[in-house]
Amino acid sequence: MGAATGFDPVVEHERTRAALRAAVPRLAGLLRDVPDGGAPSGLRGWAVRDVEAHLCAVYLAYCSAFTGEFDGWDDVLPPGDGPFVERITAVNAKAVGIFAEEARARPGAAVAERGEGFLRITEGLAPDTPVPTPWYGGSVVLTLAAATGLMLSETLVHGLDVARGARLPWRIGPDEARLVIGQAFPTMMPLALDVEKARRARVAFDVAVKGGPRLAVVVEDGAATVTRDAPPRAYDCRITAAPTAFLLIGFRRVPLWRAVARGGIRAGGRRPWLATRLTDLIASP
After folding, report:
1. Residue 123, C-beta contacts closer than 8 angstroms, at least 6 positions apart
2. How far apart are the first and last CA of the chain?
3. pLDDT recorded at residue 285
4. Confidence at residue 216, expressed as pLDDT on a 0 to 100 scale
5. How do 237-241 and 202-209 pair as beta strands?
6. 8 A C-beta contact, residue 54 and residue 46
7. Rounded to 5°, angle at Cα 231 from 203 and 5
8. Which residue from 45, 254, 263, 279 lies 20 to 30 Å from 244 (Cα-Cα)?
9. Omega of the bond prior to 107 within 30 degrees of 0, cis?
């Protein structure tokens, strides 16, 4: 596997904040450029304004973790801590309904205000600052670094959904994708594990993203651990991936076979055929 490269969490967190600071107004401009908010987006079942309403909810949720400005969680969250996909799907459906009118009345404006608000509220806070995220589970608390990476992923990936539906250009650069993968994936992949499918699984993946980061993904007995720049060990499957391709596969925006055909993903190691198991084990709403 080679020597671990290591990274500076403070520097990378600031780079992620800078990427989010650049992406939010870009997304707001895209939303203003869409001629019809009721037109289908690239996300099945959602119009463009539904995607925008979802983004308004996401930005408000992360801001509210610090400000407490939203106190309606009892009306949004499903009871108990059910499976990840079912929980997030239910939260998304309710949140879209709550913010649909705002998205219709102020295309792009609310997204810009709330995205910039998050950056302002969290200015100067350490990357390991705790961020309660009850929408992922009643006891789930992320770090600010992971939360910022997730907000960047929401901005970039849903920007792509809007652009695909409106037939407008939208680019997710490799550096942006590397930041999301490094900051958010080590936290979110274990949370998104399909526990039933993973219950009898014992497999270790070495995921090498071109230009970094490198992730050791180990699934054993219904649980997953994801370690960044892990020390050398034996792996069942080694996956080498272009950063944007891996990001879009993780969010189910590009099928694995297409990324393989285009050279964005390559599998090796003792059992290269297990590469398809990774996308099967890690769920996505």
Report:
1. none
2. 32
3. 61
4. 97
5. parallel
6. yes
7. 120
8. 45
9. no
Q: Which band of pLDDT confidence, cut at 50, 70 and 90, is reported for residue 72? A: low
Rounded Cα–Cα distance for residues 193 and 221 (Å): 11
pLDDT of residue 130: 96
CA distance 182 to 203: 21
For the packed helices 9-33 and 144-166, what is the interaxial angle rounded to 10 degrees?
30
| pLDDT at position 3 | 41
Average pLDDT over residues 75-92: 78
CB atoms inside a 10 Å sphere around CB 160: 23
According to the model, what pLDDT value does residue 2 have? Answer: 42
102 close to 91: Cβ distance less than 8 angstroms: no
Among 40-54, 69-83, 153-167, 189-203, the range scoring the smallest mean pLDDT is 69-83
Size (the chain), residues: 285
Alpha-carbon span 99 to 178, nearest angstrom: 30
Three-class secondary structure assignment of the chain: CCCCCCCCHHHHHHHHHHHHHHHHHHHHHHHHHCCCCCCECCCCCCEHHHHHHHHHHHHHHHHHHHHCCCCCHHHHCCCCCCCHHHHHHHHHHHHHHHHHHHHHHCCCHHHHHHHHHHHHHCCCCCCCCEEECCCCCCCCEEEHHHHHHHHHHHHHHHHHHHHHHHCCCCCCCHHHHHHHHHHCHHHHHHHCECHHHHCCCEEEEEEEECCCCEEEEEEECCEEEEEECCCCCCCCEEEEECHHHHHHHHCCCCCHHHHHHCCCEEEECCCHHHHHHHHHHECCC
